[in-house]
Amino acid sequence: MITIGIDVSKKTMVGVAINRFSKIKEEFNFGNNKVEIDNWISCIINRYKNITVASEATAEYHRLLALSCLDKGIGYRLLNPIVTKQFTKATVRKRKTDKQDALIIAKLALTGVGNMVTSKSFDTTKSYTRTAAKLVHLEGTLRLVAKRFEELVPDDKGAFKSLTKCIKQLEKCTKFLRKRGISKTNKNDVKLLETIPGIGRIIAPVLLSEIGDINNFKTIKSLVAYAGIDPRVKQSGMGLKHNTHLTKRGSPYLRQSLFQAASIARIHNEELKNYYQKKRDEGKRYKEATIATSRKLLYRVYAVLKRKTGYVVR
Predict the structure, then answer these.
(1) Domain hosting residue 214, numbered range
(2) Tens-digit pLDDT profile for residues 293-303
(3) Measured between alpha carbons, how far is 97 from 252 in angstroms, rounded to an integer?
(4) Pair 204, 193: CB distance under 8 Å
(5) What is the pLDDT of residue 239?
(6) How confident is the model at residue 238 (pLDDT cuts 50, 70, 90)?
(7) Residues of the chain above pLDDT 70, percent
(8) What percent of the chain has pLDDT over 90?
(9) Residue at 313 is within a domain
(10) Is 226 part of any domain?
């Protein structure tokens, strides 16, 4: 059995292969492109049997390597960068090189750390929903720019009209991407999430694409941590603080969608409205109270997706 840890970057890959006794068998250096990855995979298939490749989750940079490995029947394990960082900090020398990172990834993967991924793990829905969210942000910025321009140069109607056309084109492109994202999402899961107050046809695909397989989360606490809406815990002596800043780990797109859904739900759902008001009465600000509400909303999302039954308003 051979485990290969890969330190992934935008242009290059650094790898270390170890056996089941954690002894280094070989080191690798190759480019992060289709040709070099395929050549590397052909080489290791000829040299070793029962191979597992592992890397950290690095935005989209590990995607090509993972899909190429899966296509050749090689198991691929994806690790949370936080885990490898904590492991590095725990070592005495605290070395930080690409080779050392690859070795740490290999050792952690050998012990079962991380999740084995499949081709379904790289669903393209996330690309559509994330790009649409970025365009919405650009649209908002451009609206402010256009408004400011009209105030400064009120006589140049042609330039303002051109800016308006850009805004309309962004709106059109956003709608197109959202429509494509919806078409690639599981229709039954979308219908299930739409039974939850605050979640509609725009937010549901984002939640599904960002969460992925709900079975990867054994408890609701693990999903809350993944969303990054759990508070940091600080302890000093006998003092223990829970009400600190959020950890903000995981997907910012997931947090943003939950915040939007909670803002809507607290208006239309009596239970969440009362919960939000309770937090406000406790002295929480608008943002803090809404985040607490989004956490409660995520409980509903978890229950609905786990049980495969719609939410029933009480």
Answers:
(1) 190-307
(2) 999 999 999 99
(3) 28
(4) yes
(5) 44
(6) very low
(7) 92
(8) 75
(9) no
(10) yes
Q: Residue 260: which region, alpha, beta or left (left: phi > 0; alpha: psi -120 to 50)?
A: alpha
Say whether both 201 and 297 belong to one domain.
yes
Last residue of a domain, one of 122, 137, 162: 122
Contact by Cβ (8 Å): 245, 232: yes
Q: What is the pLDDT of residue 92?
A: 52
Strand order, beta sheet including 75-79 = 24-31, 12-18, 2-8, 51-56, 75-79, 115-116
Q: Which of 142, 169, 184 is the last residue of a domain?
A: 184
CA atoms within 13 A on the CB side of 209: 28
Q: Which two tokens stand for residue 203?
A: 């937010």
In order, the DSSP letters of 261-280 are HHHHHHHH-HHHHHHHHHHH
DSSP the chain: -EEEEEEE-SSEEEEEEE-TT--EEEEEEEESSHHHHHHHHHHHHHH-SSEEEEEE--TTTTHHHHHHHHHTT-EEEEE-HHHHHHHHHHSSS----HHHHHHHHHHHHHTT-SEE--GGGG-THHHHHHHHHHHHHHHHHHHHHHHHHHHH-TT-HHHHHHHHHHHHHHHHHHHHHHHHHHHTS-HHHHHHHTTSTT--TTHHHHHHHHH--GGG-SSHHHHHHHHT-SBP-EEETTEEE-SS-B---S-HHHHHHHHHHHHHHHHH-HHHHHHHHHHHHTT--HHHHHHHHHHHHHHHHHHHHHHT------
Given this model, what pLDDT does residue 190 score? 95
d(CA 272, CA 269): 6
Contact of 276 with 287, CB cutoff 8 Å: no
Q: pLDDT tier at 310 (50, 70, 90 boundaries)? A: very high
Q: Are residues 22 and 69 in the same domain?
A: yes
Cα 225 to chain centroid, rounded: 12
